[in-house]
Amino acid sequence: MAQSGKGKLNYRCPSCFLRDLDIDMFYDKEKDEFYCLRCQFTGKESDVLNMNEMVRIRYKAMATRFEKFDFD
User: In angstroms, how far is CA 4 from the centroid of its own chain?
Assistant: First the structure.
């Protein structure tokens, strides 16, 4: 999803992203935390970044082309 407007960077919701949904999180200035409207996930910026880093493990080899398969 494209980031709309200028301001604090939008992050993907880690809970939704685990289910292959690309949902942006919203930022609450009063509570200083991010939240998702779809799944009710809430967390600080550090929590969101750590969980999104764990999700990236799924896509580690996405840009790698596999040409040889040695199953024997």
Answer: 17
Sorted by sequence, the CB contacts under 8 Å of residue 21 that are 6+ apart come out as: 13, 38
Residue type, position 27, single letter: Y
Express each pLDDT in 36-49 by its tens digit. 999 989 999 999 98
- Closest of 33, 32, 52 to residue 42, by C-alpha: 33
pTM for this predicted structure:
0.65
DSSP state of 5: S
Per 3-state DSSP, what percentage of the chain is helix, strand, and coil (rounded to 5)? 30, 15, 60
Query: Whole-angstrom Cα distance, residue 15 to residue 9?
Result: 18
Cβ count within 10 A of residue 38: 13
Average pLDDT score over the chain? 81
